[in-house]
Amino acid sequence: MTRSAKKGPYVDERVLKKVLDKKPENTGVIKTWIRSCVISPEMIGFTFGVYNGKSHIEVLVSEDMVGHKLGEFSPTRKFVRHGGKMQKEIDQKAKQAEIDAAKVAKSTAASDSKKTAAKK
């Protein structure tokens, strides 16, 4: 459920205080644990270190991000990949095809160099 329009967007006072009266060029990374804070137009150009539960991920705020929350740009879960046995087989075939292509390219390059050496 979204926040009431009557209340307005939630912008944390501590984060806003760190941003106001400062220039983005002079300020380094602003560390914050407040993922629910909505990005306001005053924050454009600043770099925030948003905590994802393990480390701070740097987020450079741009105009397109206004109205979104800081936590949206700092994923908390690491995607490994889908698959299983079938995906593993597909990956092995692709890797083997890549190795074979590299061997063919290497052998043609070696034969070309022998031909040029024989002509001299």
Helix and strand layout, with pairings?
Elements: H1 13-19, E1 29-32, E2 47-51, E3 56-60, H2 85-119
Parallel strand pairs: 1-2
Antiparallel strand pairs: 2-3
Describe the protein's architecture and organization.
The chain is an alpha+beta fold. The protein has 2 domains: 61 residues, Ribosomal protein S19/S15 (30s Ribosomal Protein S19, Chain A); 34 residues. It is 35% helix and 12% strand. Strands 1-2-3 form a 3-stranded mixed sheet, with no helix packed on it.
Give a quick precis of the structure.
This protein has 120 residues and is of the alpha+beta class. It folds into 2 domains: 61 residues, 30s Ribosomal Protein S19, Chain A (2-Layer Sandwich); 34 residues.
What's the story with the biggest beta sheet? 3 strands, mixed
Indicate the CATH architecture of the largest domain: 2-Layer Sandwich
Structural class: alpha+beta
The average pLDDT value, as a whole number, equals: 88
CATH class of the largest domain: Alpha Beta
- Tell me the number of helical segments per DSSP (H or I, 4 or more residues long): 2
Number of domains: 2
| Series of secondary-structure elements, N-terminal to C-terminal | HEEEH
Backbone CA Rg: 26 Å
State the low-pLDDT regions, or none.
none
Strand content: 5-15%
